[in-house]
Write a sequence for this structure.
């Protein structure tokens, strides 16, 4: 991404300036405070996250204890992390760029007081969907990037925000192309139910409404089959039956086997989870009353 590359150039420039400046530091007088003479060399790995302060969170000018304490943060305050330094510090954004030692920030269960979701629920909701795990480029996606994502990819994008590996302020809602924060705050002003929940809980509801509840079908394309498999992964469903019907496949056994092989292999590549499937063409009737002729498929997750 352009922003990341430009930032890398700026960091390199700062590092070079620090090295040059260090070479011109005068010799230290015996009575001079040595702690005020320092030149730290470090690199930064871009990372977007929200972590929490603990009882020893001190903010420094540079990733070095000799650089001077800017402020001390009270316990349990959310802090926007923008990077991790090569010497184990967090780079943070607090009305400017500063640094916190590695033991000065901690992760926190992403539950909320109104009980909409707990840390355990989040883990279950996002099981098997980590293609965007700790992706430092999440905040650089724009509306067109989001619009181009298929459903499975977009669900993973949402899950990365829900797991706390990116700041929710950067999340874009696919159906409107607007920022999550913008939509949430707008609705919260006129809807008490929205105002009563956190932005994260709002995103969870949005994510779940975005998904189809169906594991049964009938499904009519490869995309919908993959969504069903992804749902089975998230909710740890070992075996389920589905129906597939598509005019281009019809009752052709070779075509359906090729399609199933493609779908199963893509899910394995994307999620690291394998399925077997047994197929039979015939009459079906689903629990919602839908009926007809199609491929009755039984998916089984491999251990």
């Amino acid at each position: 991404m352009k922003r990341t590359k430009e930032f890398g150039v700026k960091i390199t420039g700062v590092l070079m300036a620090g090295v040059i400046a260090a070479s011109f530091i005068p010799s230290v007088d015996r009575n001079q405070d040595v702690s005020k003479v320092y030149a730290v060399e470090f690199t930064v790995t871009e990372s977007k996250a929200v972590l929490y302060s603990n009882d020893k969170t001190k903010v420094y000018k540079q990733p070095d204890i000799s650089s001077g304490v800017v402020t001390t943060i009270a316990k349990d305050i959310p802090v926007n992390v923008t990077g991790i330094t090569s010497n184990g510090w967090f780079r943070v954004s607090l009305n400017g760029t500063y640094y916190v030692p590695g033991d000065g920030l901690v992760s926190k269960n992403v539950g909320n007081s109104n009980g909409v979701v707990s840390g355990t629920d989040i883990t279950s909701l996002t099981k098997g969907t980590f293609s965007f795990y700790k992706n430092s480029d999440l905040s650089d996606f724009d509306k067109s990037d989001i619009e181009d994502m298929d459903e499975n990819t977009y669900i993973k994008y949402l899950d990365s925000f829900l797991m706390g590996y990116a700041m929710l302020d950067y999340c874009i809602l696919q159906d409107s192309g607007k920022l999550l924060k913008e939509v949430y705050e707008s609705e919260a002003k006129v809807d008490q139910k929205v105002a009563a929940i956190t932005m994260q809980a709002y995103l969870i509801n949005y994510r779940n409404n975005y998904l189809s509840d169906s594991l049964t079908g009938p499904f009519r394309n490869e995309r919908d089959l993959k969504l069903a498999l992804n749902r089975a992964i998230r909710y740890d469903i070992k075996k389920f039956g589905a129906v597939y019907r598509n005019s281009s496949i019809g009752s052709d056994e070779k075509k359906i086997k090729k399609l199933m092989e493609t779908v199963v292999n893509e899910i394995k590549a994307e999620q690291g989870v394998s399925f077997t499937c047994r197929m039979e063409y015939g009459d079906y009737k689903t629990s919602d009353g839908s009926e007809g002729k199609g491929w009755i498929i039984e998916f089984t997750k491999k251990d």
